[in-house]
Amino acid sequence: MQKDTFTLRPTDEYIELIKLLKLQQIAQSGGHAKILVEDGLLKVNGEQEFRKRKKLRSGDIVEFEDITIEILAG
Question: Which of these, 35, 39, 41, 44, lies nearest to 69 by C-alpha position?
């Protein structure tokens, strides 16, 4: 299992799920990110997530296959 962190910029309160997938290079494009979410392949805080624009805040945990990403405050 691969554990990663993503640190929000100090000016940002949250990041949208599909933007995180692109920035962490889990998805090759926005369209690919949307498909991953729509297909129910992601979990946020242990629950399957289908909202593409889900706002991820500090403390949230995103899981995809063997990758876990923890969101940290900037």
Answer: 44
